[in-house]
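Good day; I would like, with your permission, to put a structural problem before you. What I wish to show you is a protein chain and, alongside it, a tokenised description of its three-dimensional fold. Please examine both parts with care and let me know of anything in them that strikes you as inconsistent. Thank you for your consideration; the sequence and its tokens are set out here:

***
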Amino acid sequence: MTDRLAADALVLLHLAFVAFVVAGGFLAIARPAVAWAHLPAALWGAWAELTNTLCPLTPLENLLRRRAGETGYEGGFVEHYLMPILYPAGLTPAHQRWIGAFVIAVNVLAYALVIRRARRRRNVGPRTSVASAVSNPRGRTP
């Protein structure tokens, strides 16, 4: 029972990690410090998909399932849990390359927004505000 619960919890953790890999860059827009955790995760996720690398969580989940008296599964987490939702026929290396490219594209977009927001903050930072307040104390446009 404990091993089955641990395997199920690992699936949830794995799914949360996949969601973080895909969309975590958008969290960095509001909280730039998230990028320190997200960038390595996104690089791992894209690399794992592009190179058809098995995530280490998958064998651990299979081990826990076997210890609980269940059968493990062949392939990886994405193939077993996510691909049946997206592709009825199953996962191929070509599909994995598309997933890897998608992860990269989404994260390039997210970090472009992070950089854009950081630049805006720099341009409208405290110095600009103080300077404009001194030269125009009532906030009126000239």
Notes: Residues 50 and 96 are 6 Å apart (CA to CA). The first helix runs from residue 2 to 30. The chain is about 75% helix and 0% strand. The radius of gyration is 22 Å.
